[in-house]
């Protein structure tokens, strides 16, 4: 490296600086020639690289690199970047004299004279192996904690689901026993109604889980929320013990709101059950439905556009929540209930419903003073009421399903709607039936069947009988079904389990 002429005072100062650099022990600080040859060597470099000055000065700095880095020209690349950009910074493995490796933080700066000529490089290296190891250990600990939390969440979810489904199965099993033993028509009717509600609750719970796992989109339609709640009132009252009172207050002439009625019923039942578990005996639960106007200037509800909303308020006088519990209330799997008594999905599912409806959920609770949950649903100013009670019509429909019980139930439902029903157990039989009955208007087929799938059947029917309307049914979530069954989007779909009202809407849409 070129030497420059210094005055006496400057020379003394330069020597002091050189001695200072040479005495630093925590950093390897040394100079390189323009070609990368080591020119100076300080105590820090000797301490953690292992070479005394007489063994290293005059040798190329690439000897500190691993064979892998040398093979790809990493040392030359480092000098070129420093020369052309003004600095090179990097982290990587370096090699000590004894062959061991350490993780280094490296900075290389070019040194130029006043005319811009390159004189060499200043190189600073730090041994940060301990810091890197600590960071890796912390990351491993975080990952282990994350896995532990996931297992805990899965355990809570499994326990809660098992509890919920055991209750539903208990209702159905007891109902079947009553049907066997009783000849009283009133008892039979009540048992059938109770089992139907339990089965529908199980279907709703399954749909919640599928929506949670796959983010299944809601089927938003314009509905009268007051009418839905009135038709669902009996179920809400049965969810409460006899010594708890449910007070409904529903405003007259409510505007239509965009909701998925099945998901809304499940969400409302979740809120009622949560309130029940928080209240003491002999108390009252209030469910109120009215129209709320959100004014942009006031912003009563955070992040909600100004306008009219149908508001459903569930208010209890139970134990309330602490600030800490309220802050975590909508987290998935968070629950204050005992083991096996709740999934921790209830309020998070309600929150998810409101997000998908472009609405909002408000939560007001004070420890010892009860809880109020508000649901804000956007008003559909242009929508029309939901479908009526019967699709009507004497059209001929062909039902196809490989499960006899499912097929028998579908036959009963379609017959109840006034359709003339033909059935088949597989795709080949369905094609034969169609050829013998050219006046069939609708094909209603399961998607997943042995042999010919519903989609394959639909394609063949569309080619051979283009006038036939085609509806496919599946228990899979639509997003998962699209991944597994190509071209399923080319047909009308209905999700299993479907209710009579679902069939009515789908048939009317055809």
UniProtKB/TrEMBL annotation:
Residues 88-140 form the PAC domain. Keywords: Kinase, Phosphoprotein, Transferase. Pfam families: HATPase_c, HisKA, PAS_9, Response_reg. Its EC number is 2.7.13.3. InterPro entries: CheY-like_superfamily, HATPase_C_sf, HATPase_dom, His_kinase_dom, HisK_dim/P_dom, HisK_dim/P_sf, PAS, PAS-assoc_C. Gene3D superfamilies: 1.10.287.130, 3.40.50.2300, Histidine kinase-like ATPase, C-terminal domain, PAS domain. The keyword Protein transport does not apply. GO terms for molecular function: phosphorelay sensor kinase activity. It comes from the Bacteria. CDD domains: HisKA, PAS. Residues 396-510 form the Response regulatory domain. The keyword Flavoprotein does not apply. Residues 13-70 form the PAS domain. It catalyses: ATP + protein L-histidine = ADP + protein N-phospho-L-histidine. Residues 160-381 form the Histidine kinase domain. The modification 4-aspartylphosphate is found at residue 446. This is histidine kinase.
């Amino acid at each position: 490296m070129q030497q420059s002429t210094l005055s006496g005072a400057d020379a003394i100062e330069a020597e002091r600086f050189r001695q200072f650099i040479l005495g630093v022990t925590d950093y390897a600080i040394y100079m390189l020639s323009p070609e990368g040859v080591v020119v100076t060597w300080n105590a820090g470099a000797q301490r953690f690289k292992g070479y005394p000055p007489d063994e290293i000065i005059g040798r190329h700095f690439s000897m500190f690199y691993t064979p892998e880095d040398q093979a790809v020209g990493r040392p030359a690349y480092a000098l070129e970047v420093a020369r052309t950009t003004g600095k090179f910074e990097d982290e990587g493995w370096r090699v000590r004299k004894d062959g061991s490796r350490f993780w280094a933080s490296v900075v290389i700066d070019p040194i130029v004279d006043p005319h811009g000529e390159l004189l060499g490089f200043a190189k600073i290296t730090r041994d940060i192996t301990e810091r890197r190891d600590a960071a890796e250990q912390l990351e491993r600990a975080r990952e282990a904690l994350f896995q532990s939390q996931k297992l805990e969440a899965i355990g809570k979810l499994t326990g809660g689901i098992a509890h919920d489904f055991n209750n539903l199965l208990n209702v159905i099993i007891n109902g079947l026993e009553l049907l066997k033993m009783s000849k009283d028509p009133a008892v039979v009717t009540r048992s059938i109604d109770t089992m139907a509600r339990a089965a529908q609750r199980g279907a709703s719970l399954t749909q919640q889980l599928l929506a949670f796992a796959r983010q299944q989109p809601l089927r938003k339609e314009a509905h009268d929320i007051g009418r839905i709640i009135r038709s669902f009132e009996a179920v809400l009252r049965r969810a409460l013990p006899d010594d708890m009172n449910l007070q409904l207050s529903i405003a007259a002439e409510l505007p239509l709101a965009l909701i998925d009625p099945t998901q809304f019923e499940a969400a409302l039942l979740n809120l009622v059950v949560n309130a029940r578990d928080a209240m003491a005996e002999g108390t009252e639960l209030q469910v109120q439905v009215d129209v709320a106007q959100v004014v942009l200037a006031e912003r009563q509800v955070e992040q909600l556009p100004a306008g009219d909303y149908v508001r459903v308020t569930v208010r209890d006088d139970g134990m309330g929540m602490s600030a800490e519990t309220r802050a975590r209330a909508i987290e998935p799997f968070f629950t204050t209930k005992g083991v096996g008594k709740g999934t921790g999905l209830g309020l998070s599912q309600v929150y998810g419903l409101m997000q998908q409806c472009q609405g909002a959920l408000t939560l007001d609770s004070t420890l010892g003073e009860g809880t109020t949950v508000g649901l804000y649903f956007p008003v559909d100013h242009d929508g029309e009421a939901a479908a009526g009670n019967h699709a009507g019509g004497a059209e001929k429909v062909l039902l196809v399903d490989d499960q006899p019980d499912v097929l028998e139930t579908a036959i009963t439902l379609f017959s109840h709607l006034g359709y003339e029903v033909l059935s088949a157990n597989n795709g080949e039989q369905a094609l034969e039936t169609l050829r013998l009955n050219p006046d069939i208007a609708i094909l209603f087929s399961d998607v997943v069947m042995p042999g010919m799938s519903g989609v394959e059947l639909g394609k063949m029917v569309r080619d051979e009988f283009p006038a036939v309307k085609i509806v496919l049914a599946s228990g899979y979530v639509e997003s998962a079904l699209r991944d597994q069954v190509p071209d399923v989007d080319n047909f009308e779909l209905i999700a299993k389990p479907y209710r009579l009202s679902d069939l009515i809407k789908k048939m009317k849409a055809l």
